[in-house]
Amino acid sequence: MLTHPTLDQLDLLGLAGMAKAFTEIEASGEAGAMSHAEWLGLLLDREITHRYDRKLLRRLRYARLRHQAAIEDVDYRAARGLDRGLFQKLAEGSWIDAHDNLIITGPTGVGKSWLASALGHKACRDDRSVLYQRVPKLFGDLQLARGDGRYGRLFRALAGVQLLILDDWGLEPLTAEARHDLLEILEERYGRRSTIVTSQLPVDKWHEVNAVLDRLVHNGQRVELAGESLRRKRPHRSAMSKAEP
User: Fold this and answer.
1) pTM greater than 0.85
2) Fewest CB within 10 A of the end CB: N or C in the chain?
3) Cα dihedral angle (162, 168, 172, 178), rounded to 10 degrees?
4) What is the C-alpha to C-alpha distance for residues 132 and 120, in angstroms, rounded to an integer?
5) 102: burial class by Cβ within 10 Å (0-12, 13-18, 19+)?
6) Which residue segments constitute the domains of the chain, with CATH numbers given?
7) What are the 10-residue block averages of pLDDT along the chain, 245 residues in total?
8) 3-class DSSP state for residue 84?
9) CA 176, 139, 164, 79: dihedral to nearest 10 degrees?
10) How far apart are CA 177 and CA 24, in angstroms?
């Protein structure tokens, strides 16, 4: 078989996954035991996997999730009131298709950000666009963007992704400008896109932003966590660990 010309043609067509599989099969000596259909099927399967992996990597890079979290690693044994059935239903993503919102509340350390990141990771795996933003930093970024001409582009990114994660809501009082920005973002997303908000404050304490609250809660689901910080109960983990939290 003309190995090198075939590889050149695969590379020319941008079929990197097929080219890699072709090389590996040839090197393993298994090619002779495979039918033409099996050979072609394996090459196509590897190309599809390669393209999916590259697309997923791009989505995850764009999302900039706070944690390397996956729904398969969620700890349902922790005493924090997380409903396993509800969370697994959320992981399926039908609420994102319905353009609903999700509010995750609870005291510090119970895994709010981690759970939000896990849902964001699953959404990326399901070929949805995701963007994570920590609320205290977001409004500073928007203010800077006004000054350097990036505001429109940043606003479109926040308004356009299929799933926007707003983490650490309510840690600091909002300025009038920040309230206006948030209201504009959520108004643009209302009924068109989904948003996850995490907060240490219970929803009934969100007094200062009633208009914002209405847009989040009206078509939103809630996960209300309780209990002690999981961080104090577990040994230190590597920063790259996917285990929760």
Assistant:
1) no
2) N
3) -10
4) 8
5) buried
6) 3-62 (no CATH), 65-224 (3.40.50.300)
7) 69 79 75 73 82 93 96 91 94 96 93 96 97 92 91 93 93 82 89 94 69 72 86 51 59
8) helix
9) -90
10) 57
